[in-house]
Design a protein that fits this description.
Metallo-beta-lactamase, Chain A, 8-stranded mixed sheet, 7-stranded mixed sheet, MBL fold metallo-hydrolase, 7 helices, alpha/beta
Length: about 290
Amino acid sequence: MFTKIKNDKLVVLGGLIPLDGRVSWVPPQATGFQPSNCYLLSEPGAAGHSHLLVDSGLAVHSDEILEDLSTLIGEGGSLSVFFTRAEMDCVSNLEPIVRHFDIERLFTGGVINPFDAFEDLARTGLRSRRHQIDAQRTGHGDSVARAATIEIGPGRVLEIEAPLLRLLMTFWGWDAETGALFTSDTFTHGVMARPDSPRVIDSTVEDTTTPEQVAGHLYAKYEWLPRATREPLRDWLAAKFDELDPEIVAPSRGCALRGRDVVRRHLDFMLKALEPQHAGLVPQAV
């Protein structure tokens, strides 16, 4: 079931991942349920491109996501798609979405086209609708259109940036209209105790997150971090959040964060986890 994060302008969709020891991107002792997220940004009443899907979620949640998209934009409705990463937890549902909806534009980054894995795309002509996100390089020698911003509706764009903290080629998105920062596979530490627990952490929710929990999730994905020089990562994160002052943090996995006080608290957890003297916060398997 989808959850509205900010009216009809920002909705989170997707299913839940049981944390039962079989998930490699969380610390081994993590329990509960981790949301797997994709986000629908909409501009109600706008003409032209008015729906943008950020990531497509895991294939195991395909039916839930298709049903929610049908409710939100109508069966066979039009939308654009932006992938923050070319990994399967982001791109898995592209093929079923293509079969059920009219895809106006596709936005991705990197040299290798992740859509090559879906043979139906060549037949439906979607390759010509793909835009490569890259603000620095020119389009010479590459037939793919490039973009550093994505129009959601008149006067509303999603600004795209490659974060300093990443494993593979990754992109973050900033929607000034909702104050939402889409952080892909960072800030994924928010888990739900039960399937019916809140999917969004805000001031109305009892937040039991600890710096140790944040560090555990961060280092489970970025296993190289204990051996890295982390001061530049801390400085970049602190400066980026000071610049944008986000009201919402929207990761591809884990609970979304809503409210500037909540966002700032979780940023402080993240900055603490990245301090050299706190590498020992990473929980160990037993």
